[in-house]
Design goal:
Helix content: 25-40%
CATH class of the largest domain: Alpha Beta
Shape: globular
Oligomer: single chain
Distance between the termini: 55 Å
Strand order of the largest sheet: 6-7-8-10-9-11-12
Number of domains: 2
Number of strands: 12
Strand content: 15-25%
Structural class: alpha+beta
CATH superfamily of the largest domain: Alpha/Beta hydrolase fold, catalytic domain
Radius of gyration: 20 Å
């Protein structure tokens, strides 16, 4: 190929390399900050200093209860209270004793104040941004039953310290909840809301401008919430999208029939990006099982993907290899 013909391709390859470095840096810095002492980091978060009011709704009431437990009630929390507040479907995988232990562990950073929401809430789900004593932001995705008694069906706790100089972008405190099937676009081009896939509603958020589009794929039981700091870091230089994969804890998307495979997740993501008209090409960023999904997506749709960032990613043979490393007694 003549040099003049290869120059544009070479320039594009170099540009993609620089773009990938920006994305990798945003992910790595956010991960590294998690491992550093959180004390004294409150001034770095860029979150509101004044606590935000909780919406008067079933999910708002559930969030208020979680805050009450974290801010002094964890020590006296009983299995009966947990059973009254949390749906049997969630307790089947996390018995009351496990829930109490988790709440007590998170409560070690109390007191917490509600600093905002990472995206518009829905009538039965919210991503709450809390700031604890250490100043490290904590995102709590929380979902409740749509019918009385509105027990908690899913919850997650993810510390999301932002990279230095990155401001976490919360939504307006008074923003009304999204109805099922609704989507909302802001003046900056941010979009949040539901898209239908085979009769199911999937929640997607996209922010920022620029190409290629960065798509963040979460770990096994995580909705989009743990990516909040990374999303805030990438949005200033590229379009970045997150979504609540089906059957993740505390997400807003409808559940999908189980068992689920990585192929099912790839099919959902491909249809979602098409339905939402998210422009390619894509840089896929996958954490844990999300790395496996991202790799499968890239091999299935190679013309759509120009980059992969794997964050402590799972591997399809990891269980087999782990079994080979330990004795039968330990396995």
């Amino acid at each position: 190929m003549p040099a003049s013909d290869s120059a544009p391709a070479l320039a594009k390859e170099r540009a993609m390399g620089r773009f990938a470095i920006h994305v990798i840096s945003a992910v790595m810095v956010a991960q590294l900050v998690i491992g550093t002492p959180a004390v004294g980091r409150a001034q770095d978060t860029g979150t509101p200093a004044t606590p935000v009011e909780i919406h008067a709704s079933p999910v708002g009431e559930a969030l208020a209860w979680v805050l009450t437990i974290l801010n002094g009630g964890a020590a006296t929390l009983t299995p009966d209270e947990v059973t009254a507040r949390i749906a049997p479907s969630l307790l089947a995988g996390a018995p009351p004793e496990i829930v109490i232990g988790l709440m007590q562990q998170v409560a070690a950073d109390a007191p917490f104040a509600l600093a905002g929401f990472t995206r518009p809430p829905t009538v039965s789900q919210v991503n709450a941004l809390l700031i604890g004593r250490s100043g490290t932001p904590l995102v709590v995705p929380l979902s409740v039953e749509s019918a009385t008694p509105h027990r908690i069906t899913g919850a997650n706790f993810s510390f999301v310290p932002p990279p230095p100089s990155v401001r976490l972008q919360t939504v307006a405190p008074g923003e009304l909840p999204l109805a099922v099937g609704e989507r909302r676009t802001s003046e900056t081009g941010r979009i949040d809301g539901f898209f239908e896939l085979d009769g199911r509603q999937i929640f997607l958020s996209c922010a920022g401008t620029g190409s290629p589009t960065v798509v963040l794929e979460s770990g096994l039981n995580d909705p989009a919430a743990p990516w909040f700091a990374v999303e805030s870091a990438v949005a200033p230089f590229a379009r970045v999208c997150t979504y609540d994969r089906a059957n993740t804890a505390g997400g807003a998307s409808d559940p999908a029939p189980t068992p689920r495979t990585a192929r099912d997740a790839v099919d959902d993501l491909h249809v979602l990006l098409s339905e939402a008209q998210v422009p390619g090409p894509y840089v896929l960023v996958g954490h844990s099982i999300g790395g496996l999904i991202a790799r499968l997506y890239a091999s299935t749709y190679p013309d759509e993907v120009v980059g992969l960032v794997l964050v402590d990613a799972a591997h399809e043979e990891q269980e087999t290899r782990l079994e080979e490393l330990v004795s039968p007694e330990l396995w």
